Amino acid sequence: MVEQNETVGWVLESSYRGTSNIIWSCVLVIFTAVWTVLHLNVPAPRDGFIKIVFRRFRWVVLSILAPDLLTLTAASQWDAARKSVAEMHALGYHEWTMAHAFYANGGGFFIEPHDIRPFPAMATSIHFLLSRGYIEKPSITRAEIWDKSKSDRFAKGAALIQSGWLVIVSISRVAQGLPLSQAEIFTLGFIVSTFMSYFFWLHKPQNAGTPTYIPMNCGIAELRKKESETNPDALTPFKLTPLDFIERPTKKWHRRDNVARFDLAARPALRIPDDAILPNLWGPMLYAMVGIPSLAHSTIHLLAWNVTFPTRAEQLLWRSASLRLHGPDQSVLDMGK
C-alpha cells in the first residue's frame, strides 16, 4: 500500500494499480475524448486525405495543450448558430435549424454566382443574400444535413463511459484517502474542460465532407456594385470571400493576416477556417457556461497543490502553472463586453 506522501517509480501490473495501467487509462480517455469531441469544418473540395488528417492532428494537439481554447471555439460557434436561427426565423424561414446554422458556418453552403467559381458562405451572408433576394431558400433538410455527418455515436458513447469511469474511480480513491497520480489529475481537468465542448457542438455535423451548392441569380460584380450604393465597404478588396463586407461588421475580433492566410491559398477561399468565428458580444449566461468549466479545470490542478512530486522543482512548476491557469485572462474578460 502506498502512503499519501510516498513517491514511487514504475510499478508493474499486479492486483494493485500498475504504472502502465494508469498511463494507458489516461491516454485512452484523452485520445478518445479529443477525437470524438472535435467537429471541424467542411474541408475544401481539393483537400486530400493527408491534408485533412494533418489538420485534424493540429487541432488534437491544441485541444490537449489548451482544452479551454477548444471550449471557447465551440461556444463561439454555438452562439453564432443560435443568433442565425433567430434571424432566419424572423425572416420567415422556420425550417432553418441549429444544424443548418452550424453547417453554414462550417462552410457547408457554397454560393454559385454567374461570374466566378463557387465559394463558401457563412450563415450571416446567407441571411443577407436571402433577404435581398439574391438566392432562394436552401432546400436541404436537417435530416439530409445529418446524413452528411459521419458522427460515430458508439465512439462518443465509449468516450463518455471511459471518462465517467475515471471520474468515479478518482472520487472513490479520494474518499478513501488514497492518492491520485499527476496523470490522473491532469486527465480529470481535461474531462471537465471538454465536457462543455460536447454540449456546444451537439447540433454540429461531424466530419461532413461535401458542401451543398446554392445558385445566385446574378454575378458577384453586380452584387457588390449594387450594394456599394448603400455600403461603400462592398467594394473593399476581400481577404476570404467576396462577401467579407457582410461578415466584417458582425465581428468584434479579427484574425491576424498571417493566421488568416494559413492553409488558405486560394481566393476566394475554398473552405471556412475552423477558427473563423471568434467570441462576439456574449451575454452573462454564455459567459458563465464557458467560465465555470474553465474555473473547474484550473481548480482541479490547484487541488493537487500538496501532491508529492519526485523533485521540489517539479512541484513548484506544477504550482506556478496551476496559478497561471487559474488566474484571469484579460482577453477572456473582454468577451462579455
Could you walk me through the main structural features you see in this protein, from its secondary elements to its overall organization?
- The protein is mainly α and 337 residues long.
- The protein contains 14 helices and 3 strands.
- The chain has helices at residues 19-37, 49-65, 67-90, 98-105, 123-132, 142-148, 153-175, 182-200, 220-227, 244-247, 257-260, 284-302, 312-326, 330-333; strands spanning 109-112, 119-120, 212-215.
- Strands 2-1-3 form a 3-stranded mixed β-sheet.
- β1 (109-112) and β2 (119-120) form a beta hairpin.
- α1 (19-37) runs parallel beside α8 (182-200) and α3 crosses α4 (98-105).
- The protein starts with 18 loop residues before the first helix and ends with a helix.
- Mean pLDDT is 82; it is low at 329-337.
Sketch the major β-sheet: 3 strands, mixed
Number of strands: 3
Average pLDDT, all residues: 82
What topology, given as strand order, has the largest sheet?
2-1-3
